Amino acid sequence: MSVLTDLIYSGSGAVAGLAESAVNDAIAKHGADKKIAFPDTAYYFPTIYAATGVKVSTLGDLPACVGVLKSLITNEPNLDSALNAGLATAVGAEILEGLKYAESSNPYENESGIGFVPDPVIRSLGVPLVTGDIPGVAVVIGKADDPADVVKVVKDYQSKGIMSFLVGDCIEQCAEGGVKMGLELRVIPLGHDVTSVIHVVTVAIRAALIFGNVQPGDLAGLLKYTKERVPAFVNTFGAIDSVVVSAGAGAIALGFPVVVDMDLGTNQVPGALESVCDHAETVKKSLELREIKIKVTELPIPVAFAAAFEGEIIRRPDMHNECYSNKNPTAELVLMREPDEVEDHKITIVGPDFDECKELALGTFVEVTGKKMQADFEAVIERKFHAWFNYMEGVMHTGQRNQVRVRVSNAAYEAGLRIHDFAEVLYVMIMNEFDAVVDKCQVTIYTEPASAEAFRDEVAMPRYAQRDARLASMTDESVDQYYTCIMCQSFAPAHCCVVTPERLGLCGAVSWLDAKATNQLDPNGPCQPIPKEGCLDERTGRYESVNKVVAEATHGAVENVTLYSILEDPMTSCGCFECICGIEPVSNGVIIVNREYAGMTPSGMTFGELASCTGGGVQTPGYMGHGRQFISSKKFCAAEGGIKRIVWMPKELKDDVCDKLNKTAQELYGIENFADMIADETVTTDCEELFNWLTEKGHPVLEMDPLM
Ligand code: SF4
Ligand code: ZN
């Protein structure tokens, strides 16, 4: 037997032994009936569930799982068998970690890691992963001989947008080395025990169940999905023992290459297990092995620029400058001009810079011109300001249009960041991302209050008003084409969104205008026009042309789809939906739940449980993923009677959509303050109580036809 297979078997054997005795101890202590679950997931013990279909819910379910895991350890002296033993290690790690949650509801409370990653977080990662905003996932394990090395590697991943999960002492090494951590910052500490690596493994596994429609028990399908669609890889630092090696074998079985920082000599497996002893090469080699390509944007500014800094928060003591609409005039505007009105790369600053004034006005005025530019794309470009400003390390941006707050940190100021750099960022990024429609671009920034105010009131506000009027007039009836979006197919191969003016993509990130602009920027890309032809049924929004284009886009997986029905051939869901609606039989209505709400609903299911009923590009009549903004659309469940069906929403969501929802109810049915008739968790999460409450309120659903 080779040294490698030997190590793998010895590691998996050790984990199997640990898992077996831990299970026996736990059963002796708590009894076999004790309930056991990871927090906020609909997928039980995800590795065991996905690989075998077994739904672990009590301690008594575990001995059989230990049996399965032991059967995977054959000790046969070939690599394929040894990789199976690696999977056994993953199952063992899952059991050991799961038992921690049997002892305490929050075993990671006093740890520097976060432990189990809840389902909603995985769903929220869908869009950034498919758009390449997160180009890959690094799993960093161990303790570097020189802490500076692991710090450098993780910072490098961060600057490239790669999401890093840390396991072991490298967590402290990175923290001490000044790595900013957190989900938003794309560096996530998992835990110190090597078994905590399972928490990133189950992220990949649940991605297969959530987005890929892989069926529980289909191990081959699971391994194919993770290998082809989850761009993850592993880096180990420092000495590795047999348990780490066998965990690494599990990673390789899932298709994730492993790079170790010691010389393995002939034990290397090209493409799967490789040695890179020079840490300056670790990142490059890892990305090559997983074929991850990073788009680099060279920006002439004195601070780092990366998506990973988007979530950075700058508090008052760290703040050097602030531009805030409550104190000084602010506005952001992209305006389409004639070619002779724009001088390319001209940058004009009107007013003081960060060293002259602590609190500034901020009028950001971008004028563009281009043969293919359309006024409709102004807002699409303008919406990107938020992300681009945030990508600068040490800059925080919130809001849009004339309600904006920008903060600049002391560190960014010390590094030399000035207002001119903001203009440079806009210029470079627009010419980069919108080069198909923008030929020339000039930027003017007003930091002096009077000129910013004049810009806001005389140029920006009238333009916003024009755009709003255009948006309000834009209905599904007023346009002659819709668009597909298949961006999520890289995770959900059978999924296709149909985007219309009154129904944005279910992720909430793609409006009809966005889809139109995407099509213009990349004519062979993910958004294709659907001519509105061959209406088969107006009530449900059934079109020959939509069926045809969707069938093509999904390679035949979906042949009939309606635009406005939740019951009859509803649109498919990929998994990254902002909200899910589902029918509530007692009241004959629908409930809506958003991803952020972790509590119970009157359907007897949480968001995660409801969400697990749909997804993976499958049509599930009665359940449908959708964007937040769709709730107040006149087309929401229009075939079933529209928004009058809505009986329950979490309070935060209701408050968020309240004004627009009330307006729609007023316009459609003449109902005032409709949102007040919709229950939330502060009223009840019980369906009988809900029915009584709706009766008291005189909710219109009670007079509607039965849903089924
Ligand atoms: Fe994915 Fe649909 Fe959003 Fe496109 S519109 S990114 S397919 S969820
Ligand atoms: Zn999606």
Q: Quick gist of this model?
A:
With 708 residues, the chain is α/β, with parallel strands linked by helices.
Provide structural commentary.
The structure is a single chain. This protein is of the alpha/beta class and 708 residues long. The chain contains 21 helices and 22 strands. The protein has a six-stranded parallel sheet, with helices on both faces. The protein has a four-stranded mixed sheet with strand order 8-10-13-9, sandwiched between helices. Helix 1 (3-30) runs parallel beside helix 4. Bound molecules: iron/sulfur cluster and zinc ion. The site of zinc ion (ZN) has 6 residues, from loops.
Task: Provide keyphrases for this structure.
708 residues; binds iron/sulfur cluster; 4-stranded mixed sheet; binds zinc ion; 22 strands; single chain; alpha/beta; 6-stranded parallel sheet
